[in-house]
Amino acid sequence: MADISLDFFAALRAALPGLGEPPAVCQRWPVPRARQLASGRVLFAQGARVKQFYLLGQGELSLDIVSSEGSGSSLGRLVAPSLFGLSAFVTGRPSRFEARAAAASEVWPLALPLYTALMDEWPGFARLLLQRFAEHFDGNLGLLGSARHAALGDRVWLAVQQLPAKPAQGGWRELRITQAELARLAGVSRQGVNAWLREQQACARVELGYGRLRWRA
Questions:
Q1: Closest Cα partner for 130 from 174, 97, 86?
Q2: Which residues does residue 58 pair with via DSSP β-bridges, in sequence order?
Q3: Which end of the chain is more exposed for a tag (fewer CB within 10 A), N or C?
Q4: Residue 20 pLDDT
Q5: Measured in Å, how far apart are the chain's first and last C-alpha atoms?
Q6: Where are the alpha helices (DSSP H) in the chain?
Q7: pTM of the model
Q8: Cα–Cα distances in angstroms (integers) from residue 99 to residues 30, 84, 102, 165, 202, in the given order
């Protein structure tokens, strides 16, 4: 198996914890080449008809919904390794969001022939992919309900907990996100986010830094 295949399958298994070793037949699969994205580069635009979904192997992506007036709201940040774009790919409908690199990133496009092979020939892949898709859907429902009914602090806190965070020392979890991005995700004002974060910092529940924050339950 070529090195490109080894890297791809390692990233795919990292994105779907619990997935076993690829079957021997994988050597016949059309493994894609990775795409490199510079920070700020758009992978696909809102409204685009995509012919593949994606595996984020390295880096971070921002997923945003842009209105006809040019304003936007954030669906969240993806941190590698992650799978995304499945809904538009499977349904054949235009993408409902834009995917943009928030940092230098590497993605693999998974087109229909490879998707079919993964679903039909890799035991456990379909079950774990469905689980991950259900987790994303549940998270989006939580954000929608929060945006309609919850108080500002509850909305921001739910948004923080929905984002992929990295473990840090002392039981903290760390996010790379600005207050403006967090405000967009929670659907509240930046001033409101700033005030809430300062309150949480005073209670030692949040630590603030440039372009990042740390939190713990």
A1: 86
A2: 106
A3: C
A4: 93
A5: 44
A6: 3-15, 86-91, 112-121, 125-149, 152-162, 179-186, 190-202
A7: 0.66
A8: 24, 9, 9, 19, 35
